[in-house]
Amino acid sequence: MKVEIKVLKKIRNLPKTSGIYIFKSFENKILYVGKATSLKNRVNQYFSGQEEKSRGTRMKKLVDKIFDLEIIKTDSVLEALILEAEYIKRYQPKFNIEGKDDKTYSYFLITKEKFPRVLILRKTDFQKTKNKTKEIIEGRKFGPYTSTENMRIALKIIRKIFPFHNRSERTEKGCLSYQIGLCPGPYDDNITEKDYKKNMRNVSLFLTGHKKKIIKELEREMKSYAQKQEFEKANLVKKQLYSLMHINDIALLKKEDPFNILKERIECYDISHIDGEYMVASMVVAIGGKLDTSKYRKFKIKYIVGIDDVGAMREVLARRFNHLDDWGVPNTIILDGGQGHLNMGEKLMNDFGLSGVTIGLLSVAKGLTRKKVDVYESRKFPIKSSIKTNLKLIEKLREEAHRFAITYHIELRDKDYLK
Question: In this predicted structure, what is the pLDDT of residue 2?
Answer without folding.
Answer: 56
